[in-house]
């Protein structure tokens, strides 16, 4: 999340990696709580609204910039640098 927020990786790479990490987390029954849990959940839902394949993007989908802004806000909300 930090790398994406700092513009070190592109939105497509972030979304791919995020979805894979989320699957591993759920399958491994990892749990978090509080603000961090809420922030991670919001990032998950936002990532679902960002089509990785550019040919599938529609006007109502999140843009890379919107996804990055949302992730940055969630990091701030969770108290992460």
What can you see in these coordinates?
- The longest helix is centred in the first third of the chain and has 17 residues.
- The chain is mainly α.
- The chain is built from 4 helices and no strands.
- The mean pLDDT is 86.
- The protein has a single domain, classed as Four Helix Bundle (Hemerythrin (Met), subunit A), CATH 1.20.120.650.
- It is globular.
Task: Annotate the secondary structure layout.
Layout: H1 2-5, H2 11-27, H3 34-48, H4 64-77
Helix pairs in contact: 3-4
- Mean pLDDT, all residues: 86
* Low-confidence segments: none
What count of structural domains?
Answer: 1
Strand content: under 5%
The largest sheet is: none
| Shape summary | globular
Q: Which structural class matches the secondary elements?
A: mainly alpha
**CATH top level class name:** Mainly Alpha
CATH architecture: Up-down Bundle
How many whole angstroms does the radius of gyration measure? 12 Å
Helix content: 55-70%
């Amino acid at each position: 999340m930090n790398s994406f927020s700092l513009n070190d990786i592109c939105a497509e790479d972030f979304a791919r990696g995020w979805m894979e990490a989320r699957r591993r987390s759920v399958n491994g029954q990892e749990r978090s709580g509080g603000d961090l849990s809420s922030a991670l959940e919001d990032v998950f839902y936002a990532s679902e609204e960002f089509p990785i394949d550019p040919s599938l993007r529609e006007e109502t989908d999140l843009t890379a910039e919107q996804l990055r802004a949302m992730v940055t806000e969630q990091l701030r909300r969770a108290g992460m640098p």
